[in-house]
# Entry
Amino acid sequence: SSGINAEYGIVALVSGGKDSTYTIYQCVRAGHDIVALAHLRPPDTHDELDSYMYQTVGHNVVRYVSRALCVQLYEREIKGAPVEQGLEYSRTENDEVEDLYELLSEVKRETQCTAVCSGAIFSTYQKNRVEEVCARLGLVSIAPLWEREQETLLQEMVDNHLEIRIIKVASIGLNQSHVGQHASDLLPHFKATSKKFGFNVCGEGGEFESLVTDCPLYAYKIQVDKSEKVCHSHDDMAPVWYEKFEAVSLVEKPGLKDLGLRERIGLVSKLGS
# Structure
């Protein structure tokens, strides 16, 4: 369910993007413990996979997100493909959803997790699949951002000090110049593009992907030291560009690494920074 009631030990599905990060933020604020992070990455031969389920651009930065949060990361390579493409899902051989099942089985064996949180906002396709895997494993599925109004939600993320870097664009109204920029600076452009073309302000239609380089949960800021912009497809209307990270480092935020996630959020709201 999208509601959060009892206290859970949560494994958070992460991509490094704004939705999964803000979901962790919401769960921590609601009093839950994040016991682990889980991430599905593309095979080593790919920077970027056209997956129906997982954000794969920026996948090599997820281990830095784990270190920034100081929460253990469990990773698994995506071996399957989107075999079952209907809205509903049931166990299908060689489907990419079965990779999620294997990954969460491992996390469940090794941690005290009772629930899984995901950053689903409008994709019933994704939400159904996470719920199906959770049901098989006896875990509760939590999606606190589900069906939130996108413009309000993105503004709220920015207001709560998420530093959101745009790392992929694939939409009319966006181009290579927007890659590497921050959502806080692009919000007016997103809103205008939304009015003009029906653009999803949170990128729910795959318009853009993001990386959270800093937020109140992080004990370290993620610094992009070297990256390049790569053209994935030269479409005149909606060219696809993404950022390939070559060197990333962590910058310690004084006095945070020995605190838990809840204490870090509390500290940031006290400082009002």
